[in-house]
Amino acid sequence: MPQFLSTTDPDFETNFRALLGMKREADEDVDKAVAAIIADVRARGDQALIDYTARYDRLTLTPETLVFSVEEVDAAIATVPPQERSALELAAARIRAYHERQRPENALWTDEAGAQLGWRWTAVSAAGLYVPGGLASYPSSVLMNAIPAQVAGVERLCICAPTPDGVANPLVLLAARLAGVETIYRLGGAQAIAAMAYGTDSVQPVDKITGPGNAFVAAAKRRVFGQVGIDMIAGPSEILVIADADNDPDWIAVDLLSQAEHDESAQSILITTDRAFGEAVAKAVDKRLETLERRKIAGKSWADFGAVITVRNVEEAVALSDRIAPEHLEIACADAQDIADTIRHAGAIFIGAWTPEAIGDYVGGPNHVLPTARSARFSSGLSVLDFMKRTTLARMTPDALAAIGPAAETLAISEGLEAHGLSVRARLERLNT
Amino acid sequence: MPQFLSTTDPDFETNFRALLGMKREADEDVDKAVAAIIADVRARGDQALIDYTARYDRLTLTPETLVFSVEEVDAAIATVPPQERSALELAAARIRAYHERQRPENALWTDEAGAQLGWRWTAVSAAGLYVPGGLASYPSSVLMNAIPAQVAGVERLCICAPTPDGVANPLVLLAARLAGVETIYRLGGAQAIAAMAYGTDSVQPVDKITGPGNAFVAAAKRRVFGQVGIDMIAGPSEILVIADADNDPDWIAVDLLSQAEHDESAQSILITTDRAFGEAVAKAVDKRLETLERRKIAGKSWADFGAVITVRNVEEAVALSDRIAPEHLEIACADAQDIADTIRHAGAIFIGAWTPEAIGDYVGGPNHVLPTARSARFSSGLSVLDFMKRTTLARMTPDALAAIGPAAETLAISEGLEAHGLSVRARLERLNT
Predict the structure, then answer these.
(1) Which of A11, A123, A249, B412 has the greatest CB tally within 10 Å of its CB?
(2) CA-CA distance, B129 to B119, in Å (whole number)?
(3) Where does NAD(+) bind (chains A, B) (predicted)?
(4) What are the backbone dihedrals phi and psi of residue B108, each rounded to the nearest 5 degrees, phi first?
């Protein structure tokens, strides 16, 4: 049973805060283990990678087989049924079209002092994408990570994907090819992150690492941050649906379940202006749970973390939504667009009942790597900008330096940084002679 | 004595790699202490803040005096000499003008399938800026952090600045006022970061924390990352100057010293096509070091981490510069603009001999919070974007869902995510009835 809350309950604020503060991730003590793995990979290189892969993936590798050969990729891709290939191609094309609009503009101008100012965006030289293995090995995530990198102009892209017992997902390899990734390592876990950050004889180091992963991968990304750039530390998936009574309860039920089925730690919340509708949705969820393949996972997520919140009006719904700052926000209301316009904190908004969140996971176009655990308050989904960086530009003329240099000198002296001031003064003196 | 390298040396590659790999920061074991401080602030709130401030800043506070009163700020600001006030106002105006051009554009379009797609940028609701105390208490840094936040539209801005022995820097308070920051806490160290991240009775929590700090502050920022957003972990300052022989050696010498004087761990590197010019610069540095106020700091930085690298040609200079990925790159060459155009990795470029780096620290306009320690390979200086986040938008019509939904369903099934597919299927079935 999910929680049922109502803003008219006397203890609503307490219960809502408890919902917000729910710790959904196991507090595993993995950091120490991860530190040791990273140190080992830095010290022993390829041999450490081979040892960890034997231990965790039950797979014997050599420096030569750390990476998939072109023939291996070809052979795997040939097994993909045409319908799945077409679907992946459609997804790739739509994701590419969306992300191509994100390429940022350079700027250059001359101000009234005669100073030329601006900035220029350039791509990261090399990026590494982590793709989880096992159940969470999603070809769609390959596209969502690799295509923005490719659109940004990253020259060298690689993937690390574990292949437990040597089993690879052909769709993952096809997605890599569609996104222009040539190098795919049979590597997972903290050891893969360490290899991409520091390099080994067989793994060229990269400048930026993105992609989801388990607690070991997340801890490793946090540790190598600084040595390389990382995207974000992704937590369990979440959906918030705001729905009025004028909806099919079953549609909303499957939308809620589409997040709940990801992970027992996922969270699905419905906010509605109509309590009876909320109850109807909960009943529809129970009905779907009777037959859903992943009913055990989805049922536990819904029971432990699910919630149905009844509000007095749409304004209350928006205010609660902004406090939740959901990863995915679906708005199934008559005035969905107006409501969307007033939302401040959300990773992605799906507007109107004809826009199920799952569309955004695959073929909508926007990225499905989105800020979780309320981090949409301060961060954004993955984009082309994550694979680029900005260099600021400044060019003074003698006149411009004469105009603004004395102020710089004054501030340098007041900050006790004499040489800063002298570097301006030496030039200004030339002008006066 | 700085190191002298030349690309014609047989052991150049080895020595250059050693230069790149130099560890300039003390590997202090502060992380454990910081974890304890954060836990203590979360547990004891204001009282922990008061206790740490008594211990580290020798200052007795109460919940009421944690924050500067308006009268205290007024009184301090009144002591600022007019010349310094004008210089700070000029700096604020120029920084604001530059950053106002960084406001990002929203986007919304309808694609050929009839899907409405786009994104919308919104500001972070609340941001906290850390301003170091003591020698490194720089009013210019207040402007560089607070103005982008203000331009982004952040509603609530606060500053934490330690005041050792109760001494505050009036220019810091003036800079805060110029940048629209109302709330300034007398707090420093890891406890200040913890308070801004988690909140106490007297400190309202924020969503994003930026600003430089010592090893404790850096470790605390790394630890609270996820609970709040952070800007970057700043390391010691660096400058790389590329200069041809047609320069005044003294100009280049003071430019190198303007970074060296920041910190004994700062690094100043000259790359030149003319070895004799490099030697003349080194001689000019020594001369300036005889009288420079901060000669002890600057001299140690220059001796320990300084380098003069002679290259065969400009192409070599550019290639080495991109490997260094300097925080600050100054190009004092006849064809400075052409060289700047080919640089790929640098935080900020100062083009031409009339653009000393120090201009960028104060009044140029671009931000002086820049990626250090080679992180310009994957990250950018502070900007308006650091205080904003992007929400992606998608709105399907029934026709659009009919066009692209089946591909989403196919991929959902292939990924084993049945409910994802059902959320599309339920809607498509309605269309078929």
Answers:
(1) B412
(2) 28
(3) 130, 191, 214
(4) -155, 125
Residue A395 φ/ψ, nearest 5 degrees: -140, 115
What is the DSSP secondary structure assignment for residue A228, as one 8-state letter? B
Give me chain A's average pLDDT, please.
95
Q: From the candidates A99, A261, A264, A328, which is the catalytic residue? A: A328
In angstroms, the CA A241 to CA A271 distance is 6
Looking up tokens 């600057």 gives: B298
Beta strands at B267-272 and B238-243: parallel, antiparallel or unpaired: parallel
Q: How many helices (H) and strands (E) does chain B have?
A: 17, 14
Catalytic site includes residue A25: no
Residues A403, A408, A413, A416, Cα dihedral to 10°: -170
**Domains of chain B by range and CATH?**
3-25+235-364 (3.40.50.1980), 31-104+124-230 (3.40.50.1980), 396-432 (no CATH)
Distance from CA of B290 to the nearest CA of A (A): 12
Cβ neighbours of A62 (radius 10 Å): 9
Question: Angle at CA A8, nearest 5°, toward A6 and A13?
Answer: 70
| Contact: A294, B418; criterion CB under 8 Å | yes
Check residue B26 and give its pLDDT.
55
Is A266 in contact with A301 (CB distance < 8 Å)?
A: yes
Rounded alpha-carbon distances, angstroms, from residue A108 to A120, A128, A311? 8, 32, 50
- Tell me the three state secondary structure of residue B255: helix
Euclidean distance between CA atoms A321 and A369, whole angstroms: 19
Q: How far is A63 from chain B (nearest CA, A)?
A: 25
Q: Is B85 on the interface with A (CB under 8 A)?
A: no
**Helices B295-305 and B249-260, interaxial angle, to 10°?**
100
The whole-angstrom separation of Cα A414 and Cα A424 is: 14
Residue-wise pLDDT for A161-185, tens only, equals 999 999 999 999 999 999 999 899 9
Question: What are the helix (H) ranges across B372-417?
Answer: 398-414
- Sign, CA dihedral B197-B203-B209-B211, equals negative
Which residue from B208, B228, B410 is facing A87, i.e. has the nearest CB? Answer: B410
Which one of the listed residues A327, A330, A357, A409 is annotated catalytic? A327
Strands (E), B111-228: 116-123, 126-130, 156-160, 183-185, 208-210
* Partner-chain contact A426 B364, CB within 8 Å: no
What are B87-126's pLDDT values in tens digits? Answer: 999 999 999 999 999 999 999 999 999 999 999 999 999 9
A394 interface with B at CB cutoff 8 Å: yes
The yes/no answer to whether this complex scores an ipTM above 0.85 is yes
Of A208, A258, A393, the CB nearest to B423: A258
| A327 tagged catalytic | yes
Cβ proximity of B298 and B261 under 8 Å:
yes
Tokens standing for residue A423: 């570097």
The answer to whether B300 faces chain A, any CB pair under 8 Å, is: no
DSSP-assigned states of every residue in A52-113? HHHHHH-----TTTTB--HHHHHHHHTTS-HHHHHHHHHHHHHHHHHHHTTPPPPEEEE-TT
What's the pLDDT at A135? 62
Which residue among A87, A397, A419 places its CB closest to the CB of B254? A419
Cα–Cα distance, A227 to B6 (Å, whole number): 27
The tokens for B365 are: 């306009």
Amino acid at B100: E
Q: What are the tokens at B72?
A: 């205290």
Residue A39: pLDDT band with limits 50, 70, 90: very high
Q: Report the catalytic residues of B.
A: 327-328
Select from A208, A395, A424, A433 the residue whose CB has the most chain B CBs within 10 Å, as the one to mutate to test that interface: A395
Identify which of A98, A229, A377 has the shortest CB distance to residue B379: A229
Pairwise CA distance, residues B128 & B103, whole Å: 20
* B97 CB-side CA count, 13 A: 18
Calpha distance A325→A378 (Å, rounded): 9
